[in-house]
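Closing statement on the zinc ion sub-project.
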Amino acid sequence: MACWIQEMTDQTLRAMTDDGAFRVIAARTTQTVRKVWNAQRPHPDNLRHVADMTTAAVLYRETMAPNLRVQCGLKGSGNTGTILSDSHPDGWVRALVQSSAEARRVDVSAGSMMQMMRCLPNGELHRGVVAIPEPATVSEGLMACMQQSEQVVSVARVGVAHQGTEVTAAGGFLVQLLPEAKEAESALWVLTQRLEDFPKISELLEEHDASPATLVNEIFFGMKYTVLDSSAVRFGCECSRIRVMASLGTLGKDDIESLVAAGEPLDMSCDYCGKQYLIEIEELRGLLSSS
Ligand SMILES: [Zn+2]
């Protein structure tokens, strides 16, 4: 009889301790990170930060009301570039490396900044920006954002296991101390001690195929907890022909005229997902008449 292990799909899991002290969100993002990476293939040194920013966007959104979209940004030190990630209520997430031509590698170290932004259904933006504390990692940035702009005490770890640029496991977790926690300080002390004894997140992820259920079980070991819900995570993008045309519409008349004069259809591709859009000369002319 044929026997195989079906690869686990990417998902999040949310659970709460029965005493109401903690909530945890754990995520497996292995396949999503692979697709994010393969859509762009930036300099290999960016892999860890791209993976971590992808997982951070997923975790951050899961802390919000279910209909909110979030965007995260990491600004590397010394103008080396930025890494953006965004996560949508439908479950898709994407990321983008914009490194400077000289550096090619976005340097995450002292002086790097992290931004978390959520888009409210009425179009309003809520934005928090922090300097990433030492040791400068996406996990530290995520925790600082949660603490400073959301005022929630949180412990977060995101990570990736990989061989070269082949991602073998990616994911992470975010534990929040709930405002209604009794004896919050001692509860937090117990949890912090436990997480200090944890293996490195990348090792933990690799060992358990980044299973969110295993992560939750390890974090809440010996505590009574209830799984609240789970949701699917996948790589996705919202680019479309209409958006490409809208971005071309922001060009000056002279620029569009020179594109028309070049006499070739314009070959555009989405920076996030690599999808190609061929814009015909007639469409470019249309922009001129509509502007
Ligand atoms: Zn796209």
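The mean pLDDT is 92. With this model delivered, the sub-project is considered complete and its resources will be redirected to Aim 3.
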